[in-house]
Amino acid sequence: MAREWPHLVDFDELVRLHREGKLDAYRDDINRQFVDQTPERSDRRHDVELLLFQMQAVQARSKNGLGASLRLSQMMLQKLDELGGFFCSQKKTAKQKSGRCEEAVGGARILPFRHQEDS
Questions:
Q1: Helical packing angle, 23-36 and 43-61, nearest 10°
Q2: Spatial separation of the C-alpha atoms in residues 56 and 31, rounded to whole Å
Q3: d(CA 4, CA 57)
Q4: How far apart are CA 5 and CA 34, in angstroms?
């Protein structure tokens, strides 16, 4: 059975929701629908719920939307960097050099994002 992902509205609808003060409720609803699509007995569901909790904590601690967006963006880059390391460890031909995953893919090298420390 195929998953039915939440319906995402267009930009104009997001603007309308923001003006009416309903954007946060919409976001929470979409996040809950996404979690609900993950099988209950799966380790991934726990991971998704944990990540959602961490994102909500960042939003709650932030003084404004821009600060929350920047912190969430940093979290996303860190997760992508972790995934890059995971993929490198799964490839037998990949080489780990000075924290970078380098593999020839049609002449290209795959490089993870660098994690920036908070200043």
A1: 160
A2: 10
A3: 27
A4: 7
Three-state DSSP class for residue 22: coil
Position 113: which residue type?
F
Contact 13, 7 (CB under 8 A): no
User: Model pTM greater than 0.70?
Assistant: no
Please, are residues 112 and 100 in contact by the beta-carbon 8 Å criterion? Answer: yes
Q: Which long-range contacts (CB under 8 A, 24 or more apart) does 107-111 make?
A: 110/84
Contact 103, 94 (CB under 8 A): yes
Specify the 3-state DSSP secondary structure of 101. Answer: strand
The Cα-based distances of 79 to 5, 41, 82, 105 in angstroms read: 22, 23, 5, 22
**Residue 88 near residue 103 (C-beta atoms within 8 A):** yes
Residues of the chain short of pLDDT 70, as ranges, are 1-3, 85-108, 116-119
What distance separates the 2 farthest-apart alpha carbons in the chain? 53
**Residue 101, burial from CB neighbour count under 10 angstroms (0-12, 13-18, 19+):** buried
